[in-house]
């Protein structure tokens, strides 16, 4: 039932996440200790020299090319899907709700993606997420082309949310592993 007020006020939403941020920061300050003995002192020049030596390896050259061109397959989908839904009649408020639902899930997915990437075959999750992200434009096209003529239904809205959550999960796995390698 449409109402003048939303389910959650923006101010209370920000206050909640500010409190979470503050609690995590205090916990890190009080309970997390770094071992200074384990860290080696290394000069800036030697660090850059090591990076340069690694980048000159043949497999690293191929890997850098892959990472630089990998987003070509799904960048348009990420940029346009929301606009196309709005064009079909999807409300901005409903699109904002899908983003609101996705935000905490991205944090959870990021945690599990980090744990998953510590396995012996570290690039396998990235590769699976890459294939999934290449398939998401097809899913998005199907969702947009099957927009209900009678207007937004709860089933269609759940489908949009499920697609958005799946896309967010694949994006988290992909980006976390993309940045860590």
What report would you give on this structure?
The chain has 181 residues and is an all-alpha fold. It has a domain of 107 residues. Helix content is 74%, strand content 0%. It has seven helices and no strands. The protein is flat.
| Range of strand content | under 5%
Helix content, binned percent: over 70%
Number of strands: 0
The overall pLDDT average reads 81
Q: Rounded to an integer, what's the Rg over CA atoms?
A: 21 Å
Q: What's the shape?
A: flat
Q: N-to-C SSE series?
A: HHHHHHH
- Main beta-sheet strand count, sense and barrel state: none
Low-confidence stretches: none
Distance between the termini: 47 Å
Class from helix and strand fractions = mainly alpha
Give the oligomeric state of the chains in this entry, treating copies of one chain as homo and distinct chains as hetero.
Answer: single chain
Number of discrete helical segments: 7
Briefly say what this structure is:
This protein has helices spanning 10-31, 44-55, 58-69, 75-88, 92-116, 124-145, 154-180. By secondary structure, the protein is an all-alpha fold. The protein has a domain at 74-180.
């Amino acid at each position: 039932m449409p109402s003048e007020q939303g389910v959650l006020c923006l101010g209370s939403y920000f206050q909640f996440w500010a409190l979470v941020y503050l609690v995590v920061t205090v916990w890190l300050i009080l309970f997390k200790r770094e071992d200074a003995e384990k860290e080696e002192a290394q000069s800036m020049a030697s660090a850059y020299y090591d990076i340069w030596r690694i980048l000159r390896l043949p497999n690293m050259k191929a890997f850098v090319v892959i990472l630089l061109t990998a987003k070509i397959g799904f960048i348009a989908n990420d940029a346009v899907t929301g606009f196309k839904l709005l064009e079909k009649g999807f409300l901005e408020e409903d699109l904002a709700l899908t983003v609101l639902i996705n935000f905490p899930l991205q944090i959870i997915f990021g945690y599990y993606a980090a744990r998953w990437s510590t396995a012996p075959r570290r690039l396998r999750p990235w590769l699976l997420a890459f294939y999934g992200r290449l398939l998401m434009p097809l899913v998005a096209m199907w969702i947009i082309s099957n927009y209900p003529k009678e207007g937004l239904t709860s089933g269609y809205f759940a489908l949009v949310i499920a697609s958005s959550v799946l896309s967010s999960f694949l994006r988290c796995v992909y980006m976390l592993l993309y940045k860590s390698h």
